[in-house]
Amino acid sequence: MVNTANISKELLLGILETVTDPEVPVLTINDLGILRDVQLKDDGSVEVFITPTYNGCPAMDMIATNIRLALAEHGIQNIKVTSVLSPAWTTDWMSEEGKRKLKEYGIAPPQYSSGHSRWPNDNVTCPHCNSQHTNLISEFGSTACKALYQCNDCQEPFDYFKCH
Amino acid sequence: MNNPLINYLLHLADTTLILSHRNSEWCGHGPILEQDIALTNISLDLLGQARLFYQYAAQLINESKKAEGVKAPSPQGERVGDEVNEDTLAYLRTERQFKNLLLAEQPNSDWGQTILRQYLYSQFQQLLFQQLQHHNDEHIAAIATKSLKETNYHVRWSSEWVIRLGDGTAESKQRMLHAINELWCYTGEMFIAADYELHLNIDFNDINNRWTEKVNTVFAEAALILPSGGGGAVFMQTGGKTGTHTEHLGYILADLQYLQRAYPNSQW
Ligand SMILES: [Zn+2]
Predict the structure, then answer these.
(1) A4-83 topology per CATH
(2) pTM reported for the whole predicted model
(3) pLDDT tens across A87-124, in order?
(4) How far apart, in Å, are the Cα atoms of B136 and each of A154, B5, B140, B197, B202?
(5) Count of CB contacts below 8 A, A vs B?
(6) Across the interface, do B34 and A137 touch by the CB < 8 Å criterion?
């Protein structure tokens, strides 16, 4: 057990910012807006608040485990991971840094705010060649948060992170 | 357990779990890869919703047991004693204790029937959750708000398919008409309040009217007609909400619950 006097909220956030999404490993839980808060209790225990992206997202259990592992590596053992539903997660919480990393990874980041109701989203930019001549193949992609698009210029299929 | 809220949560959880299970039976069997993935995505969304409703029901059940002084729940939260959790509620109740809609348990036949079942339910769920997101129980409101975003996808996807198949080939139209005849008698139950739903501030008449209007619009675009001209003449089956099911539910539970029944408390 580490001396809890040395643990600060900043230190905890620094550790948590290294935890990545198992399905999109270039994104940290902070980039995605999944990490809501962390609290250091008087008894030295730590409570981490996360919010699910989609209700059935199978990555959430793994993310909770990875949070525990990351904190445990720094000697923090009394950890509680709490899932908060309200306010509901939205892609508006994804950081600009996160969107940049997504595109670099080959996934088109959400292009509109979550209130955008037009579907399919128009002019989704191909993450490979930046063409806007793209079309929707399927609203449901490899995971619940993505849709499958194809580029008419470079012909590559790609995932688009849906506005949610 | 006579608490109406707990019964209602179990009803919502059971319906989403059973429909999720039915859709998951299509995994690897969808007509094309993209649609196979779409339906399994919907299954996952429904399963996620079921978990939230079961978790909240379990919390209320444990609290009420504690208040009644029934054997104190174990502090570890393990599956011992009288403590319940989302898993025990899903895996260790019998068909007479399940409160899901009859519509959800109807077996898969062809793709058109699966699409129609999803559409009829998702359209209902969308209108229900639009009401529940303003419910005076904050936890139910939070689950409904969160889930509604997913339900909107389900309605869009399934209604587009209803239109494509209804207004498609002679064969696809025939199959959709057959599916309507098979499933229509299970739709009335959605709007008939069970005893435990009577005082939960849910306006079933309003949902029923809006649902009928929406379904009529989609069916008109799909060039499909309701049974007997309007559907009003069909005798509506009920019972699912209070545990009287069609013969199909027992088979689902045998499949779903086998592992926990054979190897109690096993985990992975
Ligand atoms: Zn391209």
Answers:
(1) GMP Synthetase; Chain A, domain 3 (3.30.300)
(2) 0.90
(3) 999 999 999 999 999 999 999 999 988 776 667 777 89
(4) 52, 12, 8, 14, 11
(5) 67
(6) yes
